[in-house]
Amino acid sequence: MKTAIHFGTAALVLLFGLTISNHAQAQSDHKSYLLAQVDPDEAYDPFTDYSEFDEESDEEADINFFRNGRFFTIGLAGGTRGFSGNMADTYEAAPTFGIFLSYFFDLRLAMSLGFQTGDHAVRFTTNDESVTYTGNVSISSINFDLKYYLNTQNVTRGLADLNPYILGGLGQFYRTYTIAGLDGFSRDSAMGVDIGAGLEIPLMRKKAYLGIQGAYHYVNFSDENKNFIPSGGGTEKLDKNITGDFFSFLAIIGMNF
After folding, report:
1. Which N-terminal residues, if any, form the signal peptide (predicted)?
2. Cα–Cα distance between 53 and 60 in angstroms, integer?
3. CA 147 – CA 130 distance, rounded (Å)
4. Which CATH code for domain 68-256?
5. What is the value of pTM for the model shown?
6. What is the distance between the alpha carbons of residues 242 and 88, in angstroms, rounded to a whole number?
7. pLDDT truncated to tens, each residue of the chain (257 aa)?
């Protein structure tokens, strides 16, 4: 009887040992894997996350430009042109007219292309014969200027919508004399420099604007600091040298696009 009990106990121990061994073998044959945890906020997608802006400030500036800015403007101008130096005694101030087209790079900087023309009465007195000549001079110009608009966000509320600006650039100026008593006419041209400032007032919910602009044009024509004028058959001596430049004051009405 005792022998049967010992044999049964030994069988149970052997069976338990085989079960443990098989379980350990099964665990050794099972491969373990590590699952990576993905944070949606840190995931990068080269297609959905692409942005042409390096900083948030650049993106805000572009959004502000598309919402409140202008792409280009076109305007008709009219005003007066005057002269400095001895030109003020020889040429009379007179009306001038023009057209302007501006392209905006951003809210502050724009490039302006303009054409301006006007006729002026002239009066010359010669040295040798003491003869006075009268006639007309036509002055036209093509101007390439950069306009920088000043920031008015921090001024009084009533003035915040105004658009003051300064401008500077180059111009090609053409001049044509028509003098009574002299055969033919004289035509010449010269490069010049533009310096000025202006102000634009929005109209029609910023679809249009009314502007005023003053500019000084530094021009050196061929007869600068000389006491003669070219005529159809030669030159006529004057009683004084021709010196000076000219300036313009314009009112501009334009449309924004």
Report:
1. 1-26
2. 10
3. 47
4. 2.40.160.20
5. 0.70
6. 10
7. 545 555 555 555 555 555 555 555 555 555 555 554 555 555 555 545 545 545 565 555 555 544 557 889 999 999 999 999 888 988 999 999 999 999 999 888 999 999 999 999 998 777 666 678 889 999 999 999 999 998 877 666 666 678 899 999 999 999 998 888 776 667 889 999 999 999 999 899 889 999 999 999 999 988 787 766 655 555 666 666 778 899 999 999 999 98
